[in-house]
Amino acid sequence: MITKQIGNCQGKLWHCADTNGNEKFSVFADTLISLSQDVFAGRLNTQTFIFKGDPFQIKSIEKNVQIKRGNPEYYLQEKSGLIQLSPLKGEIKNQSKKFDKVSFWNDQLLARTSGKWFYQPSKPEELLIDSFRIGENQLILFIPNGLVKIDMDLRQKFIPVSGKEKILSPGLNFVKIDNTWIPLESGIPIPERGKSFWWGNNILVDSSKGVTYVEGQSFSVKLRSDSIKAISKNFLLIKDRKQQIIITSLGKKIKLLHFSDIVIVSDTQVAVKNKKNWILIGLSGQKYNVNTSISTLKSLRGGNIIVKAGKRYGFIDPGGFIRISCRYDSVLDFEENLAGAKLGNSWGFLDKNERLQIQPNFQKVSSFLNGLAVVKKNEKCGLISTGGQFATPLDYEEILPFTPTGWLLRRGNWWGYATKNGEITITPRFFNIIGATSTLMKIQRDGKSGLMNRSGKLILDLEYKFIQVDKEFSNIIFYQ
Predict the structure, then answer these.
(1) For a surface tag, which of 11, 138, 339, 351 has the fewest beta carbons within 10 Å of its beta carbon?
(2) 139: which residues sit within 8 A by CB, 6+ positions away?
């Protein structure tokens, strides 16, 4: 074990280990963070220090400096409102640059100094920019004579845009020039006439003098209107005194008579209730009538829609056909081809042919997840398989799904853990269990924390006040 004390003030004794619990070093500090797999920064009183691998080989010590992560090439030092960017590669003593603001996208650096922004400063691709916008899979740089679009492979495309004001659409795929939205890739410009909003990323809804224009790259709709409402990303409702029309994102128009309710069934379907019955409407404008006995319906899950007739529940399919009659006191959505169904006071499980695969014998059930469902009987919970066999006995007060795959089990006030197959690897004996990574879990009891893997192997003893698992660099940082 390597132990280092900075100055005369001891601070806390921090430890660093790999994800198997093998200790790398210990160091006295107030705080400690990983900058990379083998570069660390700490702080003790007003002093900040940084080292690579060995805390006896400190590369810099400065006062009143806050150290932060950058990207894989840099770390950040902030002091008096300025950010100093220092390289991580090789010895940590290379020339650094100071900025008043720094941002990263796709590991690429954007930094501002003296009021000017740069993309990749000090590199061959350095570019002076006015500002930038970050999208899900792209970066847009604003430059005096246009835009530069950068994709995830760092390919650049210059787009000339006249004028100083450059306005991008929410999806960053159109730029506004005067009163026209120009696509950044190939496509048809869309004019803006009055009050407008983007519906999804590619369709502009515009209203002027009581007329609504709905315009995309493949269709254009013009209608008189008093009000406009986006029901979902694929369905729009337009009303005026004489008519009500749903427009789909494919440009289909569906006229409606009097209706009292609209429900979003899925991304590709809505349900509209008129005086007689519910009607399912698809993206291409197709309509499916639902039996007049149905009073309520919910969204589509597992291939079917939960519906209610009177006080009973059943299922219809997206075509409006009744697949399971409304004869159950309650139902859950289909998951893994089974749905919880309640008859009287007891729950069981149905398949899509309305066969009872698991008889109604439980107070409460959950939907299936990874082949198992939680069932409750006589105030005790267990896990049951789709075939009706118990994976864990009815022996717990509570069972909860635990990401990414597994289950938390509570017996009395204590928690344990079972794998996604129901194998109990940690018996209930901890006050709390918290996910740290896909393979590691923090365990807590009596105000102390430890670390276990999902097989129940102890990685760190239950004796620490603070444990942080650094997923990116595979480091565990902790102190007692």
Answers:
(1) 351
(2) 105, 106, 108, 132, 133, 149, 150
Provide the total of helices (H) and of strands (E) in the chain, helices listed first: 0, 57
Tens digits of per-residue pLDDT, 429-458? 999 999 988 899 999 999 999 999 999 999
CA distance linking residue 368 with residue 357, whole number of Å? 13
* Nearest alpha-carbon partner for 356 in 365, 344, 343, 369: 343
Residue 473: DSSP 8-state: T
The CATH number of residue 344's host domain is 2.20.25
Domain that holds residue 7: 1-99+463-480
CA angle 262, 263, 265 (to 5 degrees): 140
From 17, 92, 28, select the one nearest 58 (Cα to Cα): 92
d(CA 49, CA 35): 12
Degrees, nearest 5: CA angle 384-385-389: 70
∠ CA 55-56-57, nearest 5°, is: 90
Is 386 a domain residue? yes
Neighbours of 172 (CB within 10 A): 19
3-state helix, strand, coil in the chain (%, to 5): 0, 60, 40
- Is the predicted pLDDT of residue 404 greater than 80, yes or no? no
Q: Is residue 54 part of a domain?
A: yes
If you average pLDDT over residues 377-406, what whole number do you get? 95
Q: How far is CA 200 from CA 167, 230, 233, 360, in A?
A: 17, 10, 6, 44
The answer to whether the CB of 370 falls within 8 A of the CB of 351 is: no
Confirm whether 93 is domain-assigned: yes
What is the per-residue pLDDT across 238-262, written as a single tens digit (0 to 9) for each? 998 888 999 999 999 999 888 889 9
pLDDT(381) > 60: yes
Number of independent structural domains in the chain = 2
User: Over 90: is that where the pLDDT of 5 sits?
Assistant: no
Residues near 271 by Cβ (< 8 Å), separated by ≥ 6?
262, 263, 265, 278, 279, 280, 281, 290, 297
End-to-end CA, the chain: 16
Using omega within 30 degrees of 0 as the cis cutoff, is the peptide bond preceding 191 cis?
no
Please tell me what DSSP assigns to residue 153.
T
C-alpha span between 417 and 426 (Å, rounded): 5
Cα dist. 191→36, 197, 202, 254, 451 in Å?
Answer: 49, 12, 13, 25, 59
Are both 5 and 53 inside the same structural domain?
yes
Confirm if 405 and 373 have CB atoms less than 8 A apart.
no
> What DSSP designation does 193 have?
-
pLDDT number for residue 56: 87
